[in-house]
Amino acid sequence: MPNGKPAGVACNHLTAERRCAIFGLPERPQVCAAFMADEQVCGSSAEEALRILGWWEQATA
Ligand code: SF4
């Protein structure tokens, strides 16, 4: 996504199985490679992660 990922929009590289289609490839953004998963950000399920991310997007809009 050359202009960045807008809030509330899934990344173009996210597969239907919620996996990164460019994982390990050089075109994967550095910010993604540097991100370390943490339960406080990711929760304990995909649903919880989406809820937490939604909160962060609203809080930082
Ligand atoms: S890791 Fe980065 S590039 Fe891959 S799907 Fe997630 S946001 Fe997109």
Outline: globular
Present as ligands are:
iron/sulfur cluster
Counted by DSSP, the helix tally is 3
Mean pLDDT: 91
Radius of gyration: 12 Å
Protein name: Proteinase inhibitor
Organism: Halopseudomonas pertucinogena
List keywords for this structure.
61 residues, Proteinase inhibitor, single chain, mainly alpha, globular, binds iron/sulfur cluster, 38% helix
Protein architecture, described:
The two termini are 19 Å apart. The mean pLDDT is 91. Helices cover 38% and strands 0% of the residues. The chain contains 3 helices and no strands. The chain has helices spanning 30-34, 39-42, 46-59. With 61 residues, it is mainly α. The protein has a domain at 30-59. Iron/sulfur cluster is lined by residues 11, 13-14, 20, 22, 28-29, 32.
Care to give the gist of this entry?
By secondary structure, the chain is an all-alpha fold.
Give the SSE layout.
Layout: H1 30-34, H2 39-42, H3 46-59
